[in-house]
Amino acid sequence: DKTGTLTVGKPKVTEVVAVEGSEENLLKIAATVEARSAHPLAQAVVTEAKRRGLVWNEAREVETITGQGLRTRLDGKNIAVGNAKLFAGESLPETLLQHDTQLTSAGRTTMFIQADGHFLGVLAFADTPRDGVRAVLDHLHKIGIRQTIMLTGDNEHVGRAIGDAVGIDEVQASLTPEDKVRAIEVLAAHHGRVAMVGDGVNDAPAMARATVGIAMGGAGTDVALETADVALMADDLSKLPFAVALSRASKRIIRQNLWLSLGVVVLLIPITLAGLAGIGMAVAIHEGSTLIVVVNALRLLAYRREDM
Ligand code: ADP
Ligand code: MG
Question: 298 C-alpha vs ligand 1 centroid, how far in Å?
Answer without folding.
Answer: 44
